[in-house]
């Protein structure tokens, strides 16, 4: 034993009997992949998909959320989402910072599932790695939810209001969905299937983002009418990090490096590829040319749609889900949005309602139809779960998926509204018009690109101007700022 490296000795305190090094290595890897989706993935995507004058602000909103969520998660929110039961939809908040807590074997204390007669049907979920790995993995899910939500309010939300909104929404909205569906809450024990966040993350961020966009108000008219990406290639780089990171997103959901993790990763990529191809095909048919932005949107809806069922559907079902996720959100974004008065009135900057709320709801409903019984048996606490396609209790499962979605939608509508109205009392939700006209330089004193000399920002007193700054501002202020028009992502 003396010749064996310390890391591999089995009798040390650092290698307790319950530790499975393979599971621990995969969980840390999966968590890091999910973290890379946000930082730098969505930071790059947001910074490049928006108009140049909002590149810094958009990237910063994502960066801030990533850091703020981690601290709030450790101080209070992890145990609200995955700790001991306080209410049927909420856990008891407490810090997750002590060595004693983080080095013990991971456990979800409310996950033991019992039959109606009181006998145990599924044992408490106790992965073979320390709590620190589970806390970090679940943090990355919480962080990306807030960052996805930010996509609805880019280009006009007051950065100070955003800084206040992030911890409040994490506490009063995200933790409720997470505990209810994952942490041992009432939807978890009722048998609603959300394998890796179709409801907890995507439906919630889409509904909350749309709600926030309504309360914050629209961008200035010139931004609403023309909002081209400032760097298409960097946008693709951010999207690529998002796609590849999704293997950790869905592959880490079983909490083990088991066979279900493998099928989840494969299904994830199948659905994303199918959805991207369908979306691009529809672009070519209706707009006569393929669009990079459209391809990214199709990729996104495919990834979102497969998430609630990634580990419980067969690969052929993943293709079916990809076909539908590449066509139904395409229809709601490109056709229905332009004809709907309600959708037109809300300025959802990146169309998060379509790419996440619609696709997440679609994925949850399709899981209620296509969940395969053997795969369900591998990971779900309620035994005998199956989709309606497989008969038996599948019809009831489909109903459960619908009711679970209604709970998530309702809670996010109400909680997001209350949070923003409270913040509005002390901090304006929308930037003032003078900042909206200028963008990053007015908000942060920074700009994304140096176009005038070695790092200089454009200065009309030095570089000249076709017309005075005062004239430009006066002309801009004549626009109507009260009504959102169309969806931001144009082909």
UniProtKB/TrEMBL annotation:
Residues 25-449 form the Ammonium transporter AmtB-like domain. It is found in: Cell membrane; Membrane. Keywords: Ammonia transport, Membrane, Transmembrane, Transmembrane helix, Transport. It holds the Pfam family Ammonium_transp. Gene3D superfamilies: Ammonium transporter AmtB like domains. The keyword Repeat does not apply. The chain crosses the membrane at residues 25-47, 59-81, 134-154, 166-187, 199-217, 229-249, 261-280, 292-310, 316-336, 357-382, 402-427. It is a multi-pass membrane protein. One of its GO terms (molecular function) is ammonium channel activity. InterPro entries: Ammonium/urea_transptr (IPR029020), Ammonium_transpt (IPR001905), Ammonium_transpt_CS (IPR018047), NH4_transpt_AmtB-like_dom (IPR024041), RhesusRHD (IPR002229). Belongs to the ammonia transporter channel (TC 1.A.11.2) family. It comes from the Eukaryota. It comes from Macleaya cordata. The keyword Transmembrane helix applies. This is Ammonium transporter. PROSITE patterns: AMMONIUM_TRANSP. One of its GO terms (cellular component) is plasma membrane.
């Amino acid at each position: 034993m003396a010749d064996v490296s310390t890391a591999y000795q089995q009798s040390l305190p650092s290698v307790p009997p319950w530790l499975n090094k393979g599971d621990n290595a995969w969980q840390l890897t999966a968590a890091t992949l999910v973290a890379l989706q946000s930082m730098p993935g969505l930071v790059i995507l947001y910074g490049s998909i928006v108009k140049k004058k909002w590149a810094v602000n958009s990237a910063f909103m994502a960066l801030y959320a990533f850091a703020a969520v981690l601290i709030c998660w450790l101080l209070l929110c992890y145990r609200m989402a995955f700790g001991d039961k306080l209410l049927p939809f909420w856990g008891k908040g407490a810090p997750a910072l002590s060595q004693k807590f983080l080095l013990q074997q991971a456990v979800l204390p409310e996950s033991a599932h019992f039959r109606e007669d009181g006998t145990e049907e599924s044992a408490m979920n106790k992965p073979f790695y320390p709590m620190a790995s589970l806390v970090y993995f679940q943090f990355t899910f919480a962080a990306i939810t807030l960052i996805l939500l930010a996509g609805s309010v880019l280009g006009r939300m007051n950065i100070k209001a955003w800084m206040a909104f992030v911890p409040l929404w994490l506490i009063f909205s995200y933790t409720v969905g997470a505990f209810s569906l994952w942490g041992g809450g009432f939807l978890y024990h009722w048998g609603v299937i959300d394998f890796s966040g179709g409801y907890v993350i995507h439906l919630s961020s889409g509904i909350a983002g749309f709600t926030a966009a309504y309360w914050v108000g629209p961008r200035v008219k010139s931004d609403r009418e023309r909002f081209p990406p400032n760097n298409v290639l960097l946008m693709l780089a951010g999207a690529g990090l998002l796609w590849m990171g999704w293997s950790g997103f869905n592959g880490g959901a079983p909490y083990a490096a088991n066979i279900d993790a493998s099928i989840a990763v494969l299904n994830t990529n199948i659905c994303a590829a199918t959805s991207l191809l369908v979306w691009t095909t529809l672009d070519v048919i209706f707009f006569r040319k393929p669009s990079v932005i459209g391809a990214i949107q199709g990729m996104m809806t495919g990834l979102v749609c497969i998430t609630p069922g990634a580990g419980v559907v067969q690969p052929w079902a993943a293709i079916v889900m990809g076909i539908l996720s590449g066509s139904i959100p395409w229809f709601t974004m490109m056709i229905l949005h332009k004809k709907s008065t309600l959708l037109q009135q809300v300025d959802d900057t990146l169309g998060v309602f379509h790419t996440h709320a619609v696709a997440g709801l679609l994925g949850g409903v399709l899981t209620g139809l296509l969940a395969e019984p053997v795969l369900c048996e591998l990971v779900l606490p309620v035994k005998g779960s199956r989709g309606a396609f497989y008969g038996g209790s599948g019809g009831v499962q489909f109903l459960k998926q619908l009711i679970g979605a209604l709970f998530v939608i309702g809670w996010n509508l109400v909680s997001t509204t209350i949070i923003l109205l409270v913040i509005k009392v002390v901090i304006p939700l929308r930037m003032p018009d003078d900042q909206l006209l200028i963008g990053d330089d007015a908000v942060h004193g920074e700009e994304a690109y140096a176009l005038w000399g070695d790092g200089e920002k454009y200065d009309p007193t030095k570089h000249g101007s076709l017309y005075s700054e005062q004239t430009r501002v006066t002309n801009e202020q004549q626009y109507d700022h009260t009504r959102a028009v169309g969806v931001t992502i144009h082909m």
